[in-house]
User: Fold this.
Amino acid sequence: MNMNKISLAMLPIIAVLATGCGGDDGSNGAAGAAGAPGVDGTNGTDGTNGTNGTNGTNGTNGNLAVFTVQLTNLTYSQPFSPAAIILHEPGYNAFIDGEAASPGLELLAEGGNPADLIAEALAATQYLDAVATDGATPPRSIGATSTLLVPLLDVDDLRISFTTMLVDTNDAFTGLNAADISNMAVGQSVSFMSPTWDSGTEANTETASTMPGPAAGAAGGGGASAGFDAARDDLFDRVHFHSGVVTNANADDASKEGLSTSVLTEADRWDNPTARIVITRTR
Amino acid sequence: MKLFKAASAIALACSSSALMAQTIDIQITNLTHAQHFTPRLVVAHDNTVDAFEPGVEATSALAWLAEAGVIDDAQNADSSGQNFEALLGPTDTDNTTNTWHRFGGLVPPSMSVSYPFDTMDKPYLSILSMLIPTNDAFVGLDSIKIPTTPGTYTYMLHAYDAGTELNDELNSTRTDIVEQGGTPLGGYGAPGVAGVGASPVPLGVGGTGVAVKVGFAEDGTAIGANEVVDGTDGPVHIHRNVLGDTSLTDGASDLQSTEHRWLNPVARVTITIPAL
Assistant:
């Protein structure tokens, strides 16, 4: 359109030059008068705007992806409590190293009860699905398989958080912290080896009255009531990696290495990793 | 056409300047229960530099870092000529094979610190810091390839034993015992646990020694009753953890078995590569 405008506007100039060329012969009389300027050409009309495209239809939201989660207890003699397994979008964290534990994590890590942690997850906008496993997972054993469902739309950016208590401790737990399991194919499995955290909510006294597990039970304590105490009396009220149990081994010899008030024995020790967690997408 | 050529030349100039002198963000988290991290040596380097290697004897520079937390002359003039500054060259400079910086202060347990660091286009990154209170434990990131794709990358770090002194676990402020020959305890080249003042947990006194006993040489031969040998237990290896005990006045160790132990990993490093 612009190009057309320019060439129309130049036409009169060309006409002037053309007529001027013919006027320079004196013997043939006076030069002719210059021609009148040509009129400007009219502008072309603008094209009409195209119509907007129609919005695409929304995808259907009815299909679910199915994941199974299986825990293996790798320790020699630490039973694992019922576990909280949570599938979620990025942004939710069951815990963060260096920050104080939530009350739900405190209940799980001290008392082996996943209920409040799952309730906290349920309240998060990133929540997709959660399962509390039925019972304890004995040491040196493969646990039951749990099944979780998430909308197909969410499998492209999916996280799993997993927490279970080492019950012959004050507040040790193992699991996964928002591990990335995005874009798993149907039939694909991923395996994680897990370290051990200390919830930082209870001093590691290893006494019968502060631990819920069978070691405390054998010493006259134990049970859920012995585990959970809302008071926070660890060195720092921050989640950190566990330094292991001291136990009463070598408590009474000259080295005084062991903790005489501990009801744990050398058999209750562990090293990392303490858990293997296998996640499989089955549909 | 000229205009297009000029525009593409500008675009090339922009992209090449972004490749040079890349500043990355490095976050370090102390995951231990009661061990502090001493000032951090952060070094970007090529494949001719190796700050430490498991299975290889420690350099004097690594010994200074792992026994005393010392990286450069400014921290301790006695280390001049033997420390990482001597090994690597001046700080914050492109030393061709490397560039390094000491990030000062302690990182207490459960705490994180982060820093911007100019890698000066070196391909590898190593980070070292002593664990205190210990004899010669350090946390190390061993020559990872610096990622080039923008994003956040996480590394879990282990505790190593420099192997340059025996893990006697004796409080180096004690004066009732000395190194064999009479030298006071503490610091580089002498027995004893450094970093007594930093810990939130008090150190004991009166320990009789863990990996080596007061009054005895490594082979069990009696020496002066108040003497302790320095010894070595190298090359560099994964630390077998401290033992500690439950007494502040006697027992084997001056560390606390309930507080000072750790299990690997002991640190998390998160590196953020900025978008170009």
About this structure: Confidence is low (pLDDT under 50) at residues 1-26 of chain A. Helices of chain A lie at 2-21, 103-111, 115-122, 214-218, 224-227. Chain A has one domain: 64-281. The longest helix of chain A spans residues 2-21.
